[in-house]
Design brief:
4-stranded antiparallel beta sheet, 1 helix
Length: 335
């Protein structure tokens, strides 16, 4: 056994030590009068000023730091991907407003967090990579996401436009803002054709820039089961785009004002029925008019905000205030 006295190299007089915690390579982090001192090989290598008053500090298996605090205004669980990031203040509070009293990492890499106000929290897979302004993103507010099913995520920002994130390489590319005069509403990636679409208005990324489809105000974009037709909900009615011919169809009927109502999403199912979520209820489009759904359920009195085709040939409807309904191909409905 070896006992070493760590000498005071920062202050001329004795100092008040609030806590000390071991880190890798026989190191130590000590909290001394609003400053964290990092010791390596019995010497102070870094001094970090911080407003976080830690009750517990641990170094994770991948070299990150977790600081648990129950003292406001910095209460929570603070994560830094490395000691250098901690010194630079580049971290995130993963549990703001939680009064954290203890934290440890188990043998499987899971994080256990004890709190004063919310019991015990457990994060089973903490290998969380945070993409924010410190990572190279232009802003913190994200409007929409899309993925290519492989290694790439696309993120839409209200002020800065669309950015491409290549996950394995951690590379971020600015694709620009398709239309600086209109708000970004949605992203959709056609995995069959490897094409990225955005709105509003409807635009397609063609590798070097955006191809504009004028006069198409698309609030939401989906594709039918054949992979040949894009469907777009809009402020006024809805429309479709044939991907083979670029033929655009507007489904508003001049003699029927109800067809010009706001639509949130449009989806064609495996039976060929065209489901439309209008501003007040779920409808089926039949040639030139809307019809009621072919089933009865209490949830149908609520408006629908999203429709999703499921891989088992069923279809799901998300109701505003009415939960989720799943319609099986057999006609059975489950809420």
């Amino acid at each position: 056994q070896r006992i070493t006295q760590l000498t005071n190299q920062i202050y001329s007089s004795s100092f008040y030590l609030s806590g000390a915690w071991p880190i890798k390579d026989d190191g130590l982090i000590a909290f001394v009068e609003s400053r964290y001192l990092v010791f390596q090989h019995d010497l102070i290598t870094q001094g970090v000023s911080s407003d976080i008053i830690a009750e517990k500090v641990i170094q994770t298996k991948d070299g990150g730091l977790l600081l648990g605090s129950h003292v406001n205004p910095e209460a929570g669980l603070h994560y830094f991907s490395s000691i250098n990031h901690f010194a630079q203040g580049k971290g995130k509070n993963l549990l703001p407003d939680y009064l954290v009293t203890d934290v440890f990492e188990d043998q499987f890499g899971g994080w256990w967090v004890a709190t004063k106000n919310s019991g015990i929290l457990y994060c089973k897979n903490p290998e969380l990579e945070i993409y924010d302004e410190q990572s190279g993103l232009p802003e913190e507010e994200v409007i929409c996401l899309a993925d290519d099913g492989k290694n790439t995520i696309y993120a839409g920002f209200p002020k800065s436009g669309i950015f491409k994130i290549q996950i394995e390489e951690s590379e971020i590319q600015d694709l620009g803002k398709p239309d600086r005069g209109m708000d970004l509403m949605s992203l959709f990636f056609d995995k069959g054709r490897n094409q990225l679409w955005s709105s509003t208005p409807l635009v397609q990324w063609i590798g070097t820039g955006w191809k504009l489809f004028p006069n198409t105000i698309a609030k939401d974009i989906s594709i039918d089961p054949t992979g040949n037709i894009l469907w777009m909900g809009s402020t006024f009615g809805f429309s479709s785009l044939d991907l083979a011919t670029n033929n655009m169809i507007d489904y508003r009927m001049q003699d029927d004002p109800s067809t010009s109502r706001r639509t949130y999403t449009v989806s064609k199912d495996y039976e060929g029925r065209l489901w439309v979520a209008t501003d007040d209820r779920l409808r089926i489009w039949n040639t030139d008019h809307y019809e009621a759904p072919p089933f009865q359920h209490e949830a149908l009195k609520y408006p629908v905000r999203d429709i999703e085709l499921l891989g088992d040939t069923s279809i799901a409807f998300a109701f505003l205030g009415g939960g989720i309904l799943i319609l099986e191909r057999s006609g059975e409905v489950t809420q």
